[in-house]
Amino acid sequence: MNKLFLTLLMLLGFTFSLSAQDDMMKLLDQNEKKEREKVIATFKTTKVINAQSNETVHKRVLDFRVAHRFGNMGTASNGGIHTLYGLDNSSDIRIAFEYGITERLTAGVSRSKYRENLEGLVKYKILEQTNDNHFPVALTVFSNMVVTPEKDNAGIFSVTENGQTKKRDIRRLSYNTQLIVARKFSPSISAQLMGSVTHRNYAPDYRDDNQLYAVGAAFRVKVTRSMTIIADYYYTINKFHRTVKNANGDLQFFDPLGAGIEFETGGHVFSLMFTNASSINEPDMFASTTDSWGQGGYKFSFNISRNFRL
Questions:
Q1: Which of 30, 59, 277, 305 has its CA 20 to 30 A from that of 292?
Q2: pLDDT per residue over 113-172, tens digit each?
């Protein structure tokens, strides 16, 4: 009888021990869940190729950026050996300074070769992805204003009223706003979706819309510790930009598409890529991409980013 009682007592103690261990594991799990952390480095810099990424510049850091788009590589698009496949030409060069006011808020300025554009920009992280999926995605808003100070030889920035020509410098302005939804699926794979609205105070074709709409996607896949594959694409929604044809009967506008490789070299992020977009700033990129990948209209390009802590 005593042996039976002793056996029951040992079984009861063993069961209690298992239960206590389960409770302890649940408590540890709960404690781990409370250690919520933000997911960082979904993309490596503030831009992918043509697309803005969800990333902002860190607080009190100045991001100095140089972006270059050479000429078309294909012979069908005025490229080929006589232009060293576009290296003799440059369609756009952009120099930008972006500063992290806070970890979430970035402001910047830039100057571009294309139409001598001057730009002011702001980007803000509305939501940040967390490691416990409390926020499964990051949500960022980007907005810029671009003014072109180029000479008005064609008189497009003027109007004639009562026989008098008057300047309308307000026509030189254009704006773009984007909403960016991004997710880092693993340390190696990130993706984002973008919705974009562009407003131009002046559209060169009377059939064209002043307001342009586009949706897009961007990807980043890490191949090695310092090298990643990147790509982005925008689908322009406006009917005019999808259907209007040039004098040769070919489509006049094409969707911006870019693909390339990104290298991290200590303090620099260096991107080598190909894209059919001639201009870098968003309003002109959406309004003026007239080169086709299928006709050799892709350009060798690069972006360089260097951060300085101030």
A1: 305
A2: 999 999 999 999 999 999 999 999 999 999 999 999 999 888 888 888 877 888 888 999
Residues in the chain: 310
Q: What is the token pair recorded at 50? A: 């043509």
Whole-model pTM: value is 0.84
On whether the CB atoms of residues 52 and 178 are closer than 8 A, the answer is yes
Rounded CA separation 90/120 (Å) = 23
Cα–Cα distance between 95 and 308 in angstroms, integer? 15
CA pair distance 211, 197, nearest whole angstrom: 7
Phi, psi of 16 (to 5 degrees): -65, -40
Reading the block at residue 220, the tokens are 């980043």
In degrees and rounded to multiples of 5, residue 18 shows phi and psi of: -60, -45
Adjacent-strand bridge partners of 154: none
Return the half-sphere exposure (C-beta side, CA atoms, 13 A cut-off) of residue 242. Answer: 9
Q: How far apart are CA 229 and CA 212, in angstroms?
A: 29
Structure-token pair, residue 40 = 């960082």
Of residues 124, 146, 121, 109, the one with CA closest to residue 286: 146
Place of tokens 């005025």: 78
